[in-house]
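Fold this sequence, please.
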Amino acid sequence: MAELRWHPLTQDWVMIASHRQARPQMPKDWCPFCPGSGKVPEHYDVYKYDNDFPALSQDPPAPDDVANDFFKTAPAYGKCEVILYSPGHTTTVPELSDDHMEKLVDLWCERFNALRQDEGIKYVFIFENRGEAVGVTMPHPHGQIYGYSFVPKKIELELASSGGYFEEKGRCLFCDMLKAELDFQKRVIFSNEHFTVFLPFFTEYPYGVYIFANSHKSNLDEFTQQERRALAVTVKHTVGMLDSLFGYKFPYMMCMHNAPVNGPDVHESYHFHIEFFPPMRSADKIKYNASSETGVWAHCNPTCPEQTAQELREAYERYMKSLM
């Protein structure tokens, strides 16, 4: 079974993908993403791999016959891809060269543009899950890309907020947010010519940093090659900073927010950014999303953002010193 089911209370689609339960357990001494597996080229730097068990498909099956006048279903149309960061099975992002990271950003851009050519796809979501704490069972460095036939609810909310702000003030909500953080400074971790990494005023996670483009760009396709390279280095240094925080490979969910595709033009009001959701609230404690966060989306951060921002700045300084 692979289909979309409409959630009438939240006005959102839910992907039902029961066939993914049949995914086989990988042998401990074999990885499909490693050269020699027969699944990937013998030589590659970065590589796009079509998901073997996709939740979305460009040729989806008909939904189950369970819809009626109240319950709505739709085909699970879309695309699911895996993006391999390196042929090295245990290589981490901070271990990759700047040139290698630039190839990764180029591949993200290439796939973003390839997926947007399908007019049935309305949102291209580039993301990475890292670490057992977020449920990852495949240690080989990789991320994923989902092409949805709908705009996910969180993006809908961001679009409504940023669109309303632009209509009222004639300015970008994200640009003003970045300016406010730069003016305040205490939550800014580091920045370069093209990107700023900061812990937002409202962060829901203790170490939930954001990466904002310094200039107003709505999606990856608008970046110059210089900006692509800067993004590559910024992502690498952000992960290196997180790894230096407590001295181990830090788990996280990295979520890239581009403007929707094949829909209304929101270039003026929407702004490219990346959100990190690391589940740790200390070196050995996980911040669980319990009833308040999950049941009513009322988040509670158990730390003070200004204090954890200082921790992150110190971790960033340790990481940068380790590169010398």
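Residues 2-323 form a domain with the HIT family, subunit A fold (CATH 3.30.428.10). The first strand starts at residue 2 and ends at 7.
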